[in-house]
Design brief:
The protein is mostly helical. The protein has ten helices and two strands, in the order H-H-H-H-H-H-E-H-H-E-H-H. It has a two-stranded antiparallel ribbon with strand order 1-2. Helix 6 runs parallel beside helix 8, helix 7 runs antiparallel to helix 8 and helix 9 packs antiparallel against helix 10. The longest helix is centred in the last third of the chain and has 42 residues. This is CDP-diacylglycerol--serine O-phosphatidyltransferase. It is found in: Endomembrane system; Membrane. Its main location: membrane.
């Protein structure tokens, strides 16, 4: 048994294990340290979590306590959706920053985990709460649709991590686009059953093999501007600006129309390419 003299330890400085620990921290590779892109990714996760918070405290809790108005609270619902939109902005820019600057080895994993919170958990929870508080809602059906949305995002992110596709395209609807489409369907205030069926369709599109373009260059700028416009529509709706409700409905309808049109264009293009390849094969055979 070794006895350490406190006076001797004070005289000689910190113990050896402290020095070794500091050396190990200094020797950590730069790739395991957080980068600017990682900070943006963490902002994405924070926005997703706060969207769940506002959905709970501003919509669900007042309804359960009997203080609700029989539907989605404008202000709280707008806050939750705005935070999801802000999460999509963080998700857009963290990829751009990662390509311009260095990205840590944790970047891809952080991005998937943050996307799961902001574009899987947050919209799925939004659907569940909508099913509980809406006048014609059915909680169990809404919960089933929400589970499908969450599982679709989980499967999509897992497939994205283990597959390699040609640059410039995603396979399946991107999770931010899918989350905003699901929320838009809820805010359109359509009958309950058609809305549930449309949400299930969005979940299917996220795990489908339909190719979607990646938001780069001009498309990234268009995506960013559309996000800002959507935030403005939500603000006008929640503040009761004249025509704000109609503006929000128009924005949600455009979002859903884009979600429906892109797969149609992609399918038409694949059919055209397939027919063209068959024609070439027949011409070569002759």
């Amino acid at each position: 048994m070794t006895v350490t003299d406190p006076d001797t330890e004070r005289a000689t400085g910190p113990s050896n294990w402290v020095s070794e620990l500091e050396d190990e921290v200094d020797d950590l590779p730069l790739s395991t340290r957080l980068s600017i892109a990682d900070a943006l990714t963490l902002g994405n996760a924070i926005c997703g979590f706060m969207a769940v918070y506002f959905t709970t405290t501003g919509v669900l809790v007042p309804h359960l306590m009997g203080n609700g108005n029989g539907g989605m609270s404008k202000h709280s619902a707008a806050n939750a959706v705005t935070l999801m939109l802000l999460a999509s902005v963080f998700d857009l820019f963290d990829g751009l920053v990662a390509r311009k600057l260095r990205s840590s080895a944790m970047g891809a994993e952080l991005d998937n985990l943050s996307d799961l919170i902001s574009f899987g958990l947050a919209p799925a929870y939004f659907v569940i709460v909508w099913g509980i508080v809406s006048d014609d809602g059915h909680g169990k059906l809404a919960a089933a649709a929400a589970v499908l949305v969450l599982l679709a995002v989980v499967l999509r992110l897992a497939r994205f991590s283990c597959t390699t596709l040609p640059g410039g395209v995603f396979q399946g609807m991107p999770s931010p686009f899918g989350a905003m489409t699901v929320v838009s369907l809820v805010l359109l205030e359509l009958p309950f059953v058609p809305t549930i069926l449309a949400i299930v369709g969005v979940a299917w599109l996220m795990v489908s093999r339909v190719e979607y373009p990646k938001p780069r260059g001009r498309l990234a700028l268009v995506t960013f501007c559309w996000t800002l416009v959507s935030m403005g529509c939500l603000a006008a709706w929640s503040l009761g600006v004249p025509g704000g409700h109609q503006l929000l409905q128009a924005g949600c309808a455009l979002q859903c129309a884009a979600a429906a049109c892109i797969p149609c264009f992609a399918t038409t293009r694949r059919v055209h390419d397939f027919r063209a390849s068959r024609r070439e094969a027949r011409a070569t055979a002759r």
